[in-house]
Amino acid sequence: MKKSVLLTAGLAVIIAAGAFFYAGNGSRDDANSGTALDATALKQLVQDYSSRTLTAESASISSTQLVVQETDGKSATYSLPEDEFFVSIAPYVTKTHPCATHSLTGCQGEMPAQDFSVSVQDAAGNQVMDKQTVQSQPNGFIDLWLPRDKTYNVTIEQDGKQAVSEISTFEQNDTCVTTMQLG
């Protein structure tokens, strides 16, 4: 009986230690590691860079990875969720810039911290967002997490002006959309 209790307690300690070390590796790591964070933690990290709560030398997000280069020279690469695609849209009236891979720390849109009505509909006609009020980040971008491997129609409205665009969330697609002019 005593051996059984000790064996069970020892096994529990080993499992707990393994979980602790495994979870500890879910934070930052060296570049090219493809470090995994749970989706909630990763989205919060992206949000913190977009909102400028966190700063770095650079933080860019492709269709598969978030890559952060710190000012001290350290870098980290985080794998994005397999079922969600990040896209950042900068609606504009007069000024935009060309972009493909969104820089959370470098891209600056024309309309920061403004409210927009956003609708997203998939190719089958299903509403993903229906005239939801969304405030652009301090960088002027509206960040969306959408299901992967689909095509969507996005409508952005503000003060009677509207922009409509088709975007896709396949691996080869851009994460930075700077072509939606309100008119």
Proportion of beta-strand residues: 35-45%
Quickly give the structural class: alpha+beta
Structural Rg: 20 Å
- Which descriptor suits the 3D outline? globular
Tally of extended strands?
A: 12
Q: Uncertain regions: pLDDT < 50 for 5+ in a row? A: 1-33
**Distance between the first and last residues' Cα:** 78 Å
Name the helicity range: 10-25%
Strand order across the largest sheet: 1-4-3-2-6
Q: How would a textbook summarize the main sheet?
A: 5 strands, mixed
User: If helices are DSSP runs of H or I spanning 4 or more residues, what is the number of helices?
Assistant: 2
Description:
The radius of gyration is 20 Å and the shape is globular. It is α+β, with helices and mostly antiparallel strands. The termini are far apart. The chain has helices spanning 2-24, 39-50, and strands spanning 35-36, 58-61, 65-69, 75-79, 84-89, 102-103, 115-122, 127-135, 142-147, 151-158, 161-168, 176-177. It contains two helices and twelve strands. A hairpin with a 4-residue loop joins strand 7 (115-122) and strand 8 (127-135). A five-stranded mixed beta sheet has the order 1-4-3-2-6, covered by helices on one side.
Furnish the topology, listing elements before pairings.
Blueprint: H1 2-24, E1 35-36, H2 39-50, E2 58-61, E3 65-69, E4 75-79, E5 84-89, E6 102-103, E7 115-122, E8 127-135, E9 142-147, E10 151-158, E11 161-168, E12 176-177
Parallel strand pairs: 1-4, 5-12
Antiparallel strand pairs: 2-3, 2-6, 3-4, 5-9, 7-8, 7-10, 10-11
